[in-house]
Design brief:
Shape: globular
Strand order of the largest sheet: 7-6-5-4-3-2-1-10
Radius of gyration: 24 Å
Number of strands: 11
Distance between the termini: 57 Å
Order of helices and strands: HHEHEHEHEHHEHEHHEEEHEEHH
Strand content: 15-25%
CATH superfamily: Divalent-metal-dependent TIM barrel enzymes
CATH topology: TIM Barrel
CATH architecture: Alpha-Beta Barrel
Largest sheet: 8 strands, parallel
Number of helices: 13
Structural class: alpha/beta
Number of domains: 1
CATH class: Alpha Beta
Length: about 375
């Protein structure tokens, strides 16, 4: 062998050895792992003005190429018997849409509680059975609204009453394999109060339905709420927030994803770390603002003032601005205008999250 060829052979061999040596594996740059793909879905409340029942909702979710449909109101079902529910499950499976299901207040002492489904326990037991028949891994419920913070005993009393109902239905939840998802709803619970509720009932069968819009109604930054609730999250109802300063506090107006203050790239990246198997479900409820006079002392009679959390909310307000309200015209055309507005808000959200953030399992 010529000297030059011999040296070239040694160089190649040395390079191969170095590439496979323990030292090279130790100091080599780690291979990048792809971020988990997150499912994308819709909450039927986003298009509530349509008045659609479950079959039409499944069709709309399929048309938007969504992975998940959360039907958050039992009134959307023509029947709650097992056979027709299983047929809906089959119909949804045919278009590759996973069904999630929910209802409203299960707190018997909440101002929002309605006895149309029996007692609070009967309501919850019914929902768990419906969820099982539909193949939903969760049954989403709420405690109530911000008005419950003003009731006798305050929100802590309402939390205790809700936990009692949950514990009464624990065995059914575990037997059916359906978890109960409690939402931070309409200003009823700070994120840390929802954590308290879940831990008191038992995180083995109770989790969070995280709502980024309602997060702002308890004067919290939605990103901060995700940090608090992410590891408990088993379902979601998300939208964007616009927040701006007012003389006595701040106003909050919900809007389509990508048109508010949430940094969705950061939000989705953190979601992928905390609850990657949970779909991001969009529930657009856009339209008008709500003012929170938190700079007045009377406001804090009913809310838990935590300076660090409030500072993050105030930082949002300083970055925000007032945005136009939606006002439907008077007369018959008002209903049509509202329907078109709701469908457009949902569609823009889905397009933004799919095209700019990379959400969704379908191409």
């Amino acid at each position: 062998m010529h000297r030059r060829s011999f040296l070239q052979t040694l160089a190649v061999a040395a390079s191969a050895t170095a590439a496979t040596s323990p030292a090279s594996r130790l100091f080599a740059a780690p291979a990048k792992s792809a971020a988990p793909k997150i499912g994308l879905g819709m909450d039927n409340f986003a298009v509530r003005a349509m008045g659609w029942k479950a079959p039409a909702l499944i069709g709309h979710a399929a048309a938007l190429k969504l992975d998940t449909l959360l039907i958050s109101d039992l009134d959307a079902f023509e029947s709650l018997d097992d056979a027709p529910l299983r047929e809906l499950r089959r119909r949804a499976a045919d278009v590759a849409v996973a069904l999630y299901v929910g209802s409203w207040s299960i707190c018997p002492t909440s101002k929002a509680f309605r006895p149309n489904r029996g007692t609070a326990e009967e309501h919850l037991r019914l929902g768990l059975r419906v969820a099982k028949a539909l193949g939903s891994p969760v049954f989403r419920v709420v405690l109530g609204t911000m008005e419950d913070r003003k009731t006798e005993g305050g929100i802590q009393a309402r939390i205790a009453d809700t936990v009692a109902v949950l514990k009464a239905c624990r065995s059914q939840s575990l037997d059916l394999g359906v978890k109960i998802a409690i939402e931070n709803h309409a200003g009823d619970l700070h994120s840390w109060e929802l954590v308290q509720l879940i831990e008191s009932a038992g995180p083995d069968y109770v989790g969070a339905n995280i709502d980024s819009g309602n997060a702002a109604w308890t004067l919290e930054d939605p990103m901060d709420v995700l940090e608090n609730l992410g590891r408990y999250t088993i379902c979601s109802s998300l939208r964007d927030d616009m927040v701006w300063e007012t003389p006595d506090g701040a106003s909050v107006q919900w809007t389509a994803a990508g048109e508010g203050l949430i940094d969705w790239k950061t939000y989705a990246a953190r979601w992928a770390q905390l609850c990657p198997k949970v779909p991001i479900v969009i529930e657009t409820i856009s339209g008008g603002p709500r003012n929170f006079p938190y700079k007045t002392e009377a406001f804090w009679k009913y809310y838990d003032k935590r300076p660090a959390a409030l500072a993050k909310f105030e930082a949002l307000a300083k970055r925000g601005r007032a945005i136009p309200q939606f006002k439907a015209p008077a007369g018959p055309e008002g209903k049509v205008a509202t329907q078109e507005f709701q469908k457009a808000e949902l569609a823009r959200s889905i397009t933004y999250l799919r095209d700019h953030i990379g959400l969704g399992l379908k191409t």
